User: Fold this.
Amino acid sequence: MQTPQVPNASVYLNELGQEIGFPVPHWQACPTPQGIQLAGQYCTLEHLTMQHVADLFTAYVADQENRIWTYLPYGPFADLASFSAWLSKQAVSTDPLFYSVLDKTGKAVGVASYLRLDPANGVIEVGHINFSPALQRTQASTEAMYLMMRHVFDDLGYRRYEWKCNALNAPSCQAAKRLGFSFEGIFRQAAIVKGRNRDTAWFSILDSEWPALKQRFEAWLAASNFDAQGQQLKALEQS
Assistant:
């Protein structure tokens, strides 16, 4: 793991008197994610394979209104065959690199991915997050995001972790902020998705912010933070 570079208020000038960025000495390109298993207390993330297709389809059809597909560029899928055709392409992709989120019973109940990999600059994005009703608002959903974040910063040494979403997707924007991402702005008319305009909201976490955020996640995920009914005692933002 490379030592995080902590931005500071110092002003750096070149020989022309122009302000320039702070130095990043001894920087080396980061490894690319390889889809290794990421195991936690409440869930396990595994590289997406066709073995997960039946569980995922069953988990997703529980959302009978198809709300989970509104802001994604694909779906909903009419049947298992069409969903399988889509998933077969994602299973062999390396960018995005898809993970399945498995619950304690080993069933796949959602997916997320690393994408827009930029190892040379130490930048990586998390996206294509699609959590079924069984995974939403659970300890496992938060832990899945923590495990992916920890792998990026602690194991692979990236400098910047990005989250982008449709600016109209209020739940996604709220989730990003809850998870510790900083809002950076909106790229107007950034894309056309399903025949409609998409303004894209940008969020990020820097390596210098990760140590404190990691402590917050671990405090929230601790068994002592939940009562006998599994209700949190402190919100993630308060941990």
